[in-house]
Amino acid sequence: DAGVIQSPRHEVTEMGQEVTLRCKPISGHDYLFWYRQTMMRGLELLIYFNNNVPIDDSGMPEDRFSAKMPNASFSTLKIQPSEPRDSAVYFCASSPWGDTQYFGPGTRLTVL
Amino acid sequence: KQEVTQIPAALSVPEGENLVLNCSFTDSAIYNLQWFRQDPGKGLTSLLLIQSSQREQTSGRLNASLDKSSGRSTLYIAASQPGDSATYLCAAMTGANSKLTFGKGITLSVRP
């Protein structure tokens, strides 16, 4: 199994641009999580899905952030417009039944 | 709101030492407590998961304990090795809702 796949691994963009992060969960996992990690705030849950349905998006910082899961094998996290304070490492994780979570390698986002 | 604290933020020990990493949480009504390892530039790897009804879990040289009443968990690493150098994060799942609250981690360096 290839594990959780995230793309791109690194993204550098300018303030105001749209950014789309992608995630392919482990096949057969019903749960998908999006996290953000910064030095100041640590690792924070942004949103999670169960069977492609968003269950809790209370961690999404503001309306500039949106996430979708159109099918069981793909999810996106979009930031529009991006701001320098969005610079962070964004992780996707999947889980077969919601407790043990398997993390992807992350996308390091830099917004200039 | 659950808060998870890990102190100290960094630890350096000589190879071969047995060591204890501490984690504290404010809300004792947890569903489970999890320990993860994060290597530089990588995602998180699940090490141990302790259900709320359990007191400890063991995997190889790692042993994690849980004391819900005092809001504490410890990760014991026996006979530390340079390959154990990484950041160790604990996370509390409060309620069976799959949401994890993470500590900021302890960066461990094991000197040869």
Instruction: For the record, give the distance between the C-alpha atoms at the N and C termini of chain B, rounded to a whole number.
Output: 41 Å
Uncertain regions spanning at least 5 consecutive residues of chain B = none
What structural category do the secondary elements of chain B indicate?
mainly beta
Low-confidence stretches of chain A: none
Oligomeric state: heterodimer
Category by helix and strand content of chain A: mainly beta
Shape of chain B: globular
Order of helices and strands of chain A: EEEEEEEEEEE
Instruction: List the secondary-structure elements of chain B in sequence, H or E.
Output: EEEEEEEEEEE
- What is the CA-CA span between the terminal residues of chain A? 36 Å
Helix content of chain A: under 10%
Q: Which radius of gyration of chain A do the C-alpha atoms yield?
A: 13 Å
Provide the helix percentage of chain B.
under 10%
Could you tell me the radius of gyration of chain B in angstroms? 13 Å
Spell out the blueprint of helices and strands.
The complex is a heterodimer of chains A (112) and B (112).
Chain A: E1 5-7, E2 10-13, E3 19-24, E4 31-38, E5 42-50, E6 53-56, E7 65-71, E8 74-79, E9 88-95, E10 102-103, E11 107-111
Chain B: E1 4-5, E2 10-14, E3 19-25, E4 32-38, E5 44-51, E6 56-59, E7 62-67, E8 72-77, E9 86-93, E10 100-102, E11 106-111
